[in-house]
Amino acid sequence: MTARTAPREAHSAPTTSPEHGVAVRTSALRRVFGERAVLDGVDLTVHSGEFVVLLGASGSGKSTLLKILSGFDRRVEGDISVAKRRAVVFQEPRLLPWARVLANVTVGLRDKDARARGITALAEVGLAGRERSRPLTLSGGEAQRVALARALVREPDLVMLDEPFGALDALTRVKMHGLLRELCERHRPAVLLVTHDVDEAILLADRVLVLSGGRFHLDQPVDLPSPRSRTGIEFGRLRTRLLHELGVNEQLTRYEPLGATDTTTGTPPAR
To answer: pTM for the complete prediction?
Structure first.
């Protein structure tokens, strides 16, 4: 049974657990700011072990939805069921600067094997031996790895990520994509990732949802083989469709670089 939360009641929260095999289920979810309904009848189901990516323009309500599912925003209407064991990873790592890396990973944990689990989690994200490092000595990618370890050490049924790689350089993003996919395949949580990056969505997702006008306007399975490549034809077709749904029409112009040779005649092309 799901619980209906009432609007504008700060003490009401989505605490009901969904049925077996489901990490998230919402029905007619609505969130109003002033006179504007940012979310207006959102129906969402995320199954256990599924990797779902949310796309949408800025202000479309993606982060608002994550805040609601995380329990940070309770002024909502609708039916909401969310896995009790859940973790959130933000765009900023949000590490405690005065605490060492291992303490950041295990913060809030009280069980006797927390330290051992934290050390294992750090090894999984490629930071073995950095347990006593200070956050200020870490690179941006390393700090975000600590944030991932902090999320996964809690063995969540649902991991929510709000543009976790947005502040990283392109090369580090590529490495983090592979790491995230590997960790999710190993631990099998349900994942709900918010991003503005269409390529990132296609590379990672089992399913991509496009949020617009307060509702989902596209629910697109991603059936591409692994490992996925941006150069594939199907990748390009899906990218074009998602961009179109986001209101972006790419115009690709073929061109020959100066000095190029016509391979059929062996002569430079006419100018």
So the answer is: 0.84
